[in-house]
Amino acid sequence: MSKYKKQSHVVYKCDYHIAWAPKYRYRILTGAVGKQVDEDIRKMSEWLGCEISELNVQADHIHVVVSIPPKISVSVYMGTIKGKLAIKLFKSYPMLKKKPYWGNHFWSRGYFVNTVGINEDMIKRYVKYQEEEERKEESNQQGFDFDLGI
Predict the structure, then answer these.
(1) Which of 1, 23, 37, 144 is an S-S bond match for 53, by CB 3.0 to 4.6 Å?
(2) Which of 90, 93, 117 is nearest to 104 (CA)?
(3) DSSP characters for the chain?
(4) Which domains does the chain have, with CATH numbers?
(5) How confident is the model over 115-144, as pLDDT tens digits?
(6) What are the tens digits of pLDDT across the range 33-86?
(7) pTM higher than 0.85 for the full model?
């Protein structure tokens, strides 16, 4: 995954770590179901214009590190992935609907998301450094002030 990505009017680096689980954290993402989930997340992400750098499908949850372009919100990405994947899984594996308390909901309602990138301390140091540099620049320019007589 390159450091920055480009679209027609934006250069960006929007990387996210996202995790979510099946309803009731059932250990259902194994074997053929797990393999299909992995493949479909990759295909849908590519279709949305997102780039996956890491994907880990565990028996009871999923972790993904994905670069999402600014034109797509994280909630749209997750809604698309979870919604389309649930429909496909229920069609491919009808026995999943037979769980007594599953209903038509495959995934838990929420998800975890965190940005991936420069840490907070580094950003604070950068901002402080920029402030110091600006002060130095202003003090250097004071020696060059002159009256234009306007």
Answers:
(1) 1
(2) 90
(3) --S-EEETTEEE--EEEEEE-BGGG-S---HHHHHHHHHHHHHHHHHHT-EEEEEEE-SS-EEEEEE--TTS-HHHHHHHHHHHHHHHHHHH-GGGGGSTTTTT--B-S--EEEEESS-HHHHHHHHHHHHHHHHHHHHHHHTT------
(4) 5-117 (3.30.70.1290)
(5) 987 666 676 676 677 767 767 766 776 655
(6) 999 999 999 999 999 999 999 999 998 999 999 999 999 999 999 999 999 999
(7) no
